[in-house]
């Protein structure tokens, strides 16, 4: 049995609805779940192999996308959210009871991704399953799963499984996101004009 990449990926991708305008994410607590309401679809949704992202039990990857922070609001049991690692760039707000990460937020205004919150669409339980949320677009930080104990000899198969689903694999973020980070840095350093 091949290891799970992620439940939203293992059995093929379910396409999102491009006109989808948001939904509710709930933590895994069977009663009184923490609830976050998104007033927008996610963008740049992707599988991530880094060690910081919250993953379902047994999965090698997380699935994580972004929404503008002003489109996200905590609508139930905000008191049960706690930041997992206050020293991390992304402040991941997790339920203190079940451990699910409801959202990650960047508070450093200088960061290229300031203004975007990171969310896991598998927590959407709005009666439409994963609803119309954008399906994963690529796989990022793939080699990082080795750092968490995955055997290097299995990497070709992991990348192959992503490719068969039409997802490109990267060992950092995708080129458009890496370009966005570099552009932000160049503007800050004065190497590029502000309107580049
Ligand atoms: Zn919970
Ligand atoms: Zn990650």
List keywords for this structure.
alpha+beta; glutathione-dependent formaldehyde- activating enzyme (gfa); 11 strands; globular; binds zinc ion
Task: Give an overview in words.
This protein is an alpha+beta fold and 196 residues long. It has a single domain, classed as glutathione-dependent formaldehyde- activating enzyme (gfa). Helix content is 17%, strand content 26%. It is built from four helices and eleven strands. The chain has helices at residues 7-10, 144-147, 155-164, 175-189, and strands at residues 23-26, 35-38, 43-48, 62-68, 72-76, 81-83, 90-95, 101-106, 116-119, 138-140, 168-169. The strands form two sheets. It has an eight-stranded mixed β-sheet, with helices on one face. A hairpin with a 6-residue loop joins strand 6 and strand 7. It is globular, with a radius of gyration of 17 Å. Bound molecules: zinc ion (2 copies). One zinc ion is lined by residues 27-29, 33-34, 95, 97-98, 100. One zinc ion binds next to loops.
List the helices and strands and how they pair.
Layout: H1 7-10, E1 23-26, E2 35-38, E3 43-48, E4 62-68, E5 72-76, E6 81-83, E7 90-95, E8 101-106, E9 116-119, E10 138-140, H2 144-147, H3 155-164, E11 168-169, H4 175-189
Binding site for Zn(2+) 2: 48, 50, 53
Pathway: One-carbon metabolism; formaldehyde degradation; formate from formaldehyde (glutathione route): step 1/3
Keywords: Lyase, Metal-binding, Zinc
